[in-house]
Amino acid sequence: MKVDIIGDIHGCYQELLSLLNRLGYHIDEHQNLSHPENRRVAFVGDLTDRGPDSIHVIRFVYEIVRNQQVSYYVPGNHCNKLYRYFLGNNVKQQHGLETTVAELQQLSKQEQKEIQKKMIELYENAPLYLDLPEIDAIVAHAGIREDLIGRKDKKVKTFVLYGDITGETLPDGRPVRRDWAQHYHGDKWIVYGHTPVLEARFVNKTVNIDTGCVFGNKLTAFRLPEEKIISVPSKQPFVEEKFHSY
């Protein structure tokens, strides 16, 4: 098995197509995805919000994950928020959700229902995190501690969606997170995103591949079993303060 794990897309649909092209995938006019080496794609979540084209990303990921079943997807915290919005929950339209809602409001009522149905189905059928024993890897949106692997309870859900949060917040409102990767000593790769970094960050056998495409840096994939990073540049404006330095 050969897999290309793709970092947080956040509505950057054109960059996603560019990255898939660079990785050697072919997409036909019906959005059928194929690769000459039968590679598969896995998404670390946060498909939507902030970027220019969240609707196209939802449609495309739904097509290749649910219909064609040639790709994998785990949800991120933004996916969780959009899912709750679609369920009718009272979620605040901020931190990027407002851009996705604005896109939705440009659609007909029928198209809005189609996107709602697709996102709910995608989310409800996704694992909290993905264990791929064939390539000795786990894909989890914000990572996962070694002692939590195998569990699916509420504590694990919070960890994989938001990271190892302490409950405290920084002055700008962001949560304080522990650097869990420093304490990981497992044999499997943990491939994650969630926290934007300028370059893919390798610590022990973990790699953060959220290279902040929506903030103007790049969209990144981690290829396994090759252990190779492939990126394409972002088309979005660069926002330096959004990047995390550990």
TrEMBL record:
SUPFAM superfamilies: Metallo-dependent phosphatases (SSF56300). One of its GO terms (cellular component) is cytoplasm. Pfam families: Metallophos (PF00149). GO terms for molecular function: phosphatase activity. InterPro entries: Ap4A_hydrolase, Calcineurin-like_PHP, Metallo-depent_PP-like, MPP_PrpE-like, Ser/Thr-sp_prot-phosphatase. Residues 1-197 form the Calcineurin-like phosphoesterase domain. This is Bis(5'-nucleosyl)-tetraphosphatase PrpE.
